[in-house]
Amino acid sequence: MNVASRCGLTPQYSGLEKLHERYSGQGFTVLGVPCNQFLGQEPGSAEEIAEFCSATYGVTFPMTEKVEVNGEGRHALYERLAPFADGDGHSGDIRWNFEKFLIGRDGRVVGRFSPQTEPEAAELVAAVEARIAG
């Protein structure tokens, strides 16, 4: 998911870390993708972002370099993710920080969740558990 350190949703890092810890031994990994496209809420360098996440939320899951998730500079990963619709039918541009995607072991997008969906929400956990179960 795209992440930001200065967003009202930043506390989701705690839930994401719990999700990562709970399922990482079963082949699941949370991947944070910093993005500064939403009101400049991720202004730091990759090192500053990683330090903040580790020190503030105990994040151990991997983080990428900062990328663009919308527009002409959209990263190739988000070119592939954006067309996939969430449960409410939203597809296309990423709406805000912490929009979540679930990708299966085969590389296919199998779920998209709104930024407001908490990492420990029943529907997100159920989707993760279904993918782990096979």
What's this entry about, in short?
This protein is α+β, with helices and mostly antiparallel strands.
Describe it.
31% of the residues lie in helices and 10% in strands. The chain has one domain (2-133): Glutaredoxin, CATH 3.40.30.10. The strands form two sheets. A two-stranded parallel ribbon has the order 1-2. The chain is an alpha+beta fold. It contains four helices and four strands. InterPro entries: Glutathione_peroxidase (IPR000889), Thioredoxin-like_sf (IPR036249). One of its GO terms (biological process) is cellular response to oxidative stress.
Please give the structural blueprint.
Blueprint: E1 2-3, H1 12-23, E2 33-34, H2 46-57, H3 76-81, E3 100-103, E4 109-113, H4 122-133
Parallel strand pairs: 1-2
Antiparallel strand pairs: 3-4
Indicate the CATH architecture. Answer: 3-Layer(aba) Sandwich
Report the major sheet. Answer: 2 strands, parallel
Give the structural class: alpha+beta
The portion of residues assigned to helices is 25-40%
Record the strand order, biggest sheet.
Answer: 1-2
CATH class category = Alpha Beta
**What is the count of β-strands?**
4
Would you give the CATH topology?
Glutaredoxin
Radius of gyration: 14 Å
- General form: globular
Order of helices and strands: EHEHHEEH
Number of helices: 4
Total count of domains: 1
How would you state the average pLDDT, rounded?
Answer: 96
What fraction of the residues are assigned to beta strands by DSSP? 5-15%
